Amino acid sequence: MSGRTIWKRNLAAPLRAFLRTESGSAGVLVAAIVAALLWANIDLGSYEAVWRTQLSLRLGHLELSRDLHTWINSGLMTLFFLVVGLEARREFDLGDLRDRRRFVLPSVAGVIGMLIPVLIFLVINHGGPGAHGWGVAMSTDTALALGLLALLGRGVPDRVRIFLLTVFVVDDLIALIVIALVYSDDIKMMPIVVAVAAFAVMLAIRAAGVRRGSAYVPVAIVMWGALLVSGVDPVVAGLAIGLTAFAYSPGRAELEQVSGLFLSFREQPTPKLARTASIGLANTLSPNDRLQRIYHPWSSYVIVPLFGLANAGISIDGPFLAQAFASPVTWGVLLGYVVGKPLAVIGTSVGLTWISHGRIRPAVGWAGVLGSGTIAGVSFTVSLLIASLAFTGDQLAEAKVGVLSAAIVSSALTWTAFRVTNMLPKDKRTRALFGDMTELIDLIPDVDEKQDHVRGPAGASVTLVQYGDFQCPYCGKAEPVVRQLLGHADLRFVWRHLPLSDVHPQARLAAEAAEAAAAQGKFWQMHDLLLDHQDKLNLSDLIKYAGDLGLDQKRFHDDLISQAHSGRIESDIDSADNSGVSGTPTFFINGRRHYGAYDITTLTAAIRIARARARLGREAQATRK
């Protein structure tokens, strides 16, 4: 079964969708790096000649001419940093970083994770000609590191990736500031003023509620072009725009309005109504989501691999490697990443946990921290960007050797760390990966045994809550899975109503029927009948089901006609709105929203993880007492 929630099908779960793209694109990037090395070693002259090819844009007397290398590094890479900013903003608005305290440790780790590698580089290159290239040793590569982590760390929890992503965003932001202040030549102030003004205009357009992308594109182009002319690397524009793009789940009221637009088109299929419905549907999605859907695949599968192809090519032979590994530039970069990054991430995690007496601590266990530190040593994109600005000739080639060597060594260390972790006994492995950080709760309000409809033991360590609609076909697909899960002795199941009356006209009446049955002590029996007969939910069908269950049919009928239990249903709908639920079925596991498929394999795995985390939480609480 490939059933997915409506929310999932229309708005992919943020981090999972991001990581699926990153893990797939990591292989493409590695292939591009290998291709660049082969090309450069077969014919270095043709490799360099291609990227020096001039590409010009001309409008009347205005002309912008740069070589292909610059168009990729300063043009296309702007979109890469846009995607980085978008994902960071999504985590701030929808992810774990909604709790701003959870931003403290990774952000401090990001800063220290840049300082220590730079200090290592400067110590090794002190007084030498390569010292001014210290910026090469700063920045982790977001796309490559996350992709390799997905490949090397099977079963690594999403929290590790969130932690890394936060570190990387701080990392990238500081690196771009360094590029602007240290590695930008002949800076002109007037174009910078124009760029800032363009950014202000963009924010004003957004504040005015304009959602059409065509209104933003010209302003973004002006901002990028002004930065390019100013001497500041224009990739800064991408990150700034990404960080200001709000992320939010579509509201139920907005979705109901769109349903109305679609019904209008269904009744009168004219081009005007088709356009209105299309625009209305697109506008329910956040700017963050719409931009990610457009640019993320292009960034991961085209732009970053193209950057790798254009920048990773160096001619390698025995004498050159001997020269490179005798160079302080190579060793400064290599040790900065392989030693400095893990030392910073691990040291910061231990230090802040100790200083704060555990109030600020990693959201993952020690294996997650260790793996985060080692994979943070994977550099490529920003490092090579700075290397191309700071070095030329042999020094540039030596810096590239250091960057590529660091990526290989860091990947090997990460694989080893998680390989060892996977050999631990189950309980120790769970603690090592997840730690004991309390989960953020998405469900509002929490389950109340006196108010909610509950199946299963009250003392179960895992609670599965479903917002459902008795006429929703996806709820019908999910029901056999839920019944199979209820065979677990340590699981309780809760049903909350969310009748989508705009698309399922009989859903509200069916919910009333379930509550009318509940008033006579037969909620779950009616619940099962309704989901088994989703195509027969007319009033006469419902009264027949009441008779089949031995209910007082007259009382049942009167309750339906008078909507005696509408307040109970409205309470569940308010709960759905407060919990950010807009489609059915939507599941919550121990108060945390479940994103993704709801087949038996996926839900069983999620419940197993929740059970392990609940056990760790109880143990941690007992220890603190």
TrEMBL record:
SUPFAM superfamilies: Thioredoxin-like. It is found in: Cell inner membrane; Cell membrane. One of its GO terms (molecular function) is sodium:proton antiporter activity. It comes from the Bacteria. The chain crosses the membrane at residues 21-42, 68-86, 107-125, 163-183, 189-209, 221-248, 334-355, 367-391, 403-421. PROSITE patterns: THIOREDOXIN_2. It is a multi-pass membrane protein. Pfam families: Na_H_antiport_1, Thioredoxin_4. One of its GO terms (biological process) is regulation of pH. InterPro entries: Na/H_antiporter_dom_sf, NhaA, Thioredoxin-like_fold, Thioredoxin-like_sf, Thioredoxin_domain. Residues 432-612 form the Thioredoxin domain. Keywords: Antiport, Cell membrane, Ion transport, Membrane, Sodium, Sodium transport, Transmembrane, Transmembrane helix, Transport. Na(+)/H(+) antiporter that extrudes sodium in exchange for external protons. Belongs to the NhaA Na(+)/H(+) (TC 2.A.33) antiporter family. In the N-terminal section; belongs to the NhaA Na(+)/H(+) (TC 2.A.33) antiporter family. This is Na(+)/H(+) antiporter NhaA.
